[in-house]
TrEMBL record:
<dbReference type="Pfam" id="PF02127">
    <property type="entry name" value="Peptidase_M18"/>
</dbReference>
<keyword id="KW-0031">Aminopeptidase</keyword>
<dbReference type="GO" id="GO:0006508">
    <property type="term" value="P:proteolysis"/>
</dbReference>
<keyword id="KW-0482">Metalloprotease</keyword>
<dbReference type="GO" id="GO:0008237">
    <property type="term" value="F:metallopeptidase activity"/>
</dbReference>
<dbReference type="GO" id="GO:0005737">
    <property type="term" value="C:cytoplasm"/>
</dbReference>
<keyword id="KW-0862">Zinc</keyword>
<dbReference type="GO" id="GO:0008270">
    <property type="term" value="F:zinc ion binding"/>
</dbReference>
<dbReference type="GO" id="GO:0004177">
    <property type="term" value="F:aminopeptidase activity"/>
</dbReference>
<dbReference type="InterPro" id="IPR023358">
    <property type="entry name" value="Peptidase_M18_dom2"/>
</dbReference>
<protein>
    <recommendedName>
        <fullName>M18 family aminopeptidase</fullName>
        <ecNumber>3.4.11.-</ecNumber>
    </recommendedName>
</protein>
<comment type="similarity">
    <text>Belongs to the peptidase M18 family.</text>
</comment>
<keyword id="KW-0645">Protease</keyword>
<keyword id="KW-0479">Metal-binding</keyword>
<keyword id="KW-0378">Hydrolase</keyword>
<dbReference type="InterPro" id="IPR001948">
    <property type="entry name" value="Peptidase_M18"/>
</dbReference>
Length: 433
């Protein structure tokens, strides 16, 4: 294991640990972009862009697009776009979550996306996200995160669930998933018990908490594991690992020929159909404004898109030796064996033969291995932002990702080398012409 690969993996773990919600993930990206000299743009303002300028724009607090204006006109060089998503499956608090449940205060949750619910049991959970608080002018949005465990989903003892090891751990989503917060107090309502720690953290009165988008997260930090410490474990590797790799690649890019963008969207895990999601207008709005500032007419904008290339970066299913029947023969991708090109004949992934070959060439140029993956034909295949963005923009696209175990678990695992490989491939892609 090289020192460089270990350092990149540690930086990834630090990035994830600082990003327990989509809003925190965007804040983490913003901090790194600002440190690298990127300027923030606001969608409500008129943009003033300069050649070789470095910019970013945020939508909804949970989606972000950063870009470097290329040295050549976009009509001649096109765009190099890498996309990923900031959200992960899990448990989100309801608008009025607090309930007094016969002596215990518990918080009602909704299931967001498709998490492996059993993995949330008996973990040191806490709350993170954004809260809107009352101000003299209306309201202001503030990030909140509790580093100490506040919540828990305790298992039922095996003495009361004798078949759990044979039938599997299952939770009724309505009655058995609410998270325990504390013992109820005859002098304090469940609502007050819930509001008070948030209000204290934000230095406001409890009654000034208006609305919130809060998720439960695992407070255990990321770690290396394996006999040679060749693996990493953390929450949200799907898909903050891809965000980190793409952002690292963009920050390593200097004076690119083509305009380079990385676009990180919220709501991928629930279909992307939102103003901040890949199915919204965010990326096309940014590209339209880039084209306008480059002075491109309608014809040149079409030429720009025809010369562009999009990489959809999301995680891939790593070969698990304990479950060989779950995999398609000849498509068993290995951890620490390089980026994975994901293909599906029904366009659940955006890859075609041409774009796969182009990414293979990028990996070869970067000096990293690559692999190919297809799902078992008799199993439903997941999807990504790839087909959505490719269809919206009409540009060639490929779906790729680093191999991952336990996708959608609260504690996922991946390879140290794979993350370094992905950064190298994406950095090369930004310079590919």
């Amino acid at each position: 294991m090289t020192t460089q690969a270990h350092a990149a993996a540690q930086d990834l773990l630090d990035f994830i640990d600082a990003s327990p919600s989509p809003w925190h993930a965007v804040a983490s990206c913003e901090a790194r972009l600002q440190a690298a000299g990127f300027s923030r743009l606001e969608e409500v303002d008129r943009w003033q862009l300069v050649a070789e300028g470095r910019y970013y724009v945020v939508r909804g607090g949970s989606s972000i697009i950063a870009f470097i204006v290329g040295t050549q006109t976009a009509a001649e060089a096109g765009l190099r776009l890498i996309g990923a998503h900031t959200d992960s499956p899990g448990l989100r608090l309801k608008p009025k979550p607090a309930e007094d449940a016969q002596g215990m205060v518990r918080l009602g949750v909704e299931v967001y996306g498709g998490p492996i619910l059993a993995t949330f049991a008996d973990r040191d959970l806490s709350l993170a996200g954004r809260v809107n608080v009352r101000t003299p002018d209306g309201f202001a949005s503030k990030l909140v995160r509790f580093s100490e465990p506040l919540l828990r989903l305790p298992n039922l003892a095996i003495h009361m669930n004798r078949e759990v090891n044979e039938s599997g751990l299952k939770f009724n989503k309505q009655t058995e998933l609410p998270l325990l917060l504390g013992v109820s107090d005859n002098d304090t309502t469940a609502e007050a018990r819930f509001r008070q720690p948030i209000a204290t953290a934000l230095h406001v009165a409890p009654e000034d908490l208006l609305t919130w988008e809060l998720n439960a997260y695992d407070t255990q930090k990321g770690a290396f594991w394996g006999v040679d410490q060749e693996f990493i474990a953390n929450s949200q590797l799907d898909n903050l690992a891809s965000c980190h790799a793409a952002l690292s690649a963009l920050l390593a890019t200097n004076k690119p020929t083509a305009t380079c963008l990385c676009a990180f969207f919220d709501h991928e895990e629930v279909g992307s159909e939102s103003a901040a999601g890949a199915g919204g207008s965010f990326v096309s709005d940014v590209i339209s404004r880039l084209a306008a500032h480059a002075g491109l007419d309608a014809e040149d904008q079409k030429r720009m898109l025809a010369r562009s290339f999009f990489i959809s970066a999301d995680m891939a299913h790593a070969w698990h030796p304990n479950f060989p029947a779950a995999y398609e023969p000849c498509h068993r991708v290995m951890v620490n064996a390089g980026p994975v090109i994901k293909s599906n004949a029904n366009q659940r992934y955006s890859t075609n033969a041409d774009t796969a070959a182009r990414f293979m060439a990028i990996c070869e140029k970067a000096g990293v291995p690559c692999q190919q993956y297809a799902h078992r034909t008799d199993l439903s295949c997941g999807s990504t932002i790839g087909p959505i963005v490719a269809a919206q923009l009409g540009i060639p696209s490929v779906d790729v990702g680093s191999p991952l175990w336990a996708m959608h678990s609260i504690r996922e695992s991946a390879g140290v080398l794979d993350h370094s490989y992905m950064i190298a491939a994406l950095t090369t892609a930004y310079g590919d012409n």
